Amino acid sequence: MPAVKKTNRRAQILQALAGMLETNPGQRITTAKLAEKVGVSEAALYRHFPSKARMFEGLIEFIEETLFTRINKIVNEEKDSLTRCQMILHLILGFAEKNPGITRILNGDALMGEQERLRARIAKLYERLETQLKQVLRERKLREGKTLSADEAIIANMLICYTDGRINLFIRSGFTRKPTEQFNEQWAAFKQMFV
């Protein structure tokens, strides 16, 4: 029974941290403020996470697990490369929209002043996403016998830059400009790259 309670407390701490990232933009989150929000002592926080960096890592693991589990499902279930790319981008943007606080981790804003390895891990996450898109585009030629109007690495990079830009706009707007806003119209323009 204690393991369940520990897992629940860990989840509660991470949810509180994500909530504070959403409601306190531009402010550094201290363990004292986080402990107060959770309703425990700082010592209790440290029983579940040895450091604040580990708490951020917990949120990054949540991001990675959520996105890549769903991306793998898209890749396994959808065979059309164009639809795969569309679904992957919409997934990332929809995830950001549903998790505003976590979005501040995706753009690195919440990690300023934190350990460099956290920012490096987010950079690696974007590299993995770009590599996944590049792979989908490479498979298009093999699977569908269709070529692209530009090199798949260039197109994959443009798609990731678009996604990153939409996430940053969401944060800059105080979470009012939704990342998925006008996605279908914008995707229609991107489709021209696939012709």
Describe the structure.
- By secondary structure, the protein is an all-alpha fold.
- It has one domain: Tetracycline Repressor, domain 2.
- It is 75% helix and 0% strand.
- It is built from nine helices and no strands.
- Helix 1 packs across helix 2, helix 5 packs across helix 6 and helix 6 crosses helix 8.
- The longest helix is centred in the middle third of the chain and has 29 residues.
- It is elongated, with a radius of gyration of 19 Å.
- The N and C termini lie far apart (57 Å).
- The model has no long low-confidence stretch (mean pLDDT 88).
Main features:
mainly alpha, single chain, Tetracycline Repressor, domain 2
| Derived structural class | mainly alpha
Terminal-residue CA separation: 57 Å
**Poorly predicted regions:** none
What series of H and E elements makes up the topology? HHHHHHHHH
Radius of gyration from CA coordinates: 19 Å
Beta-strand residue fraction: under 5%
If classified by CATH, what would the architecture be?
A: Orthogonal Bundle
Report the principal-axis shape.
Answer: elongated
Helix content: over 70%
- Chain oligomer state: single chain
CATH class: Mainly Alpha
Quote the CATH topology: Tetracycline Repressor, domain 2
The H-level CATH homologous superfamily, spelled out, is: Tetracycline Repressor, domain 2
How many strands, what sense, and barrel or not for the largest sheet?
Answer: none
- Count the E strands: 0
The figure for the number of domains is: 1
> What is the average of the pLDDT values?
88
* Total helical elements: 9
